[in-house]
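Bench log. Compound arrived from synthesis this morning; before running ITC I wanted a structural hypothesis for how glutamic acid sits in the protein. Inputs:
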Amino acid sequence: MSDLTALTGVVTTDLAAVTRGRFVSSESFEKTVTSGVGWLQANLSLTPFNLIAHPNPWGSSGDLRLLPDPDARYRTSNTGSDTAFDLVAGNLIELDGSPWSCCTRTILVNALSDLKAQTGLSIVAAFEHEFQLLGADIPKEHVMSFAGLRRADGFASQVMTALQEAGLNPEVIISEYGEDQFEVTNAPATGVTAADRAVVLREIVREIARNRGWKASFAPKTSLSSVGNGVHIHFSFADSDGKAVTYDAGGPSGLSNVAASFCAGVLRHLPAMTALTASSVSSYYRLKPHNWSSAYTWLGDKDREATLRICPTVTIGGRDPGKSFNIEYRAADATANPYLALAAIVRAGLEGLKEKLPCPPVHAGDPEELSEQQRAERGLRRLPESLAGALDELKKDPVVTSWFSDVFLETFLGLKAFEMQSLDGLDEDSICARYRAVY
Ligand code: GLU
Ligand code: MG
């Protein structure tokens, strides 16, 4: 490390899932903890292509504070940069300290506290990330192979070292199925921390790649023909005593009553919430049948085409299956803000819990081989096939829109409309290229 002034970034994650913020010298970071650093409303209308959407509800006036959460500080000196990586996630507040209704991290905090207040449950989650290394001129090896990872050994080891030092508890890094594709997982954590970790993981991986002259792209499709990069959100529940309550040996595919009702709520609102978990035009090139992503409102037992995959339990050596039992939401990618994505899952699940919805059918088999009527009988509805379609579904679901303030919805819908407009006339591969460059 050099003797340059160390800087601490106080950050927020916007509707384009871009980590933005302001830096202060690490020495004076403590001074920001009571009243934060300056921020402004219009920043929330920034598209991933760096233009402010117009019209937007904000214009050029208004000010906010970005208040760091000292419990969400992530540091590592192992990214190969001149100074340490030092990121603190923050919440956007008004100048009098009251919460700002459009702060995505606060939206998740509120969803989690409503879940807790109304059901006693907490969510434990982990975001599993896939990405591709672009510009790394290293010989190709078989996908998912030993050599496939060894060829990127310095990179892979550095990612694991940095994630460990930053406190993310990394678990596994692999060479994935796609060309130059990798996947990294970290241990589950409680709600907000899980989403904070998703932000940090992306920034650390990107920084390490950048320092090697490469780009790590988390775009859902780096080209139309490439394998998709998913963000799979694993979740499970703990009761007020911290006991895992997702599993019931006698329940359908091991789902407890609370897990079943939660899943039913998610499936019910899935078409309307897809825009919040798969938020770009290119997201919908990934959400197609036979891509191992997800294309239907489908609860499946260990099936990687299901939107909600009931994950396997391991009982080797007498291990308690209930402890690790979890469900994986697969219709997400890195163009979605992780706080909003998890908030949508929590809010939809809470609707299911409030209504004590019965377990949806656990479907096995390829929905594409069923007739429209057979799919309808099994509750299998096609997910929106475009961002425009997803936004229409969002607008049509009064339950989903009720989770947000009017001004938040106006900002989100306006931003996404502007983002779509800015891609007008481009073919699908050129659209993938635009997103590949910025995610
Ligand atoms: N790459 C797939 C996706 O787009 C996921 C493959 C897997 O199951 O890990 O979600
Ligand atoms: Mg994978």
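What the model suggests: Residues 105 and 215 are 27 Å apart (CA to CA). The pocket of magnesium ion (ligand 2) is lined by residues 130, 176, 183 (CB under 6 Å).
ITC booked for Thursday regardless.
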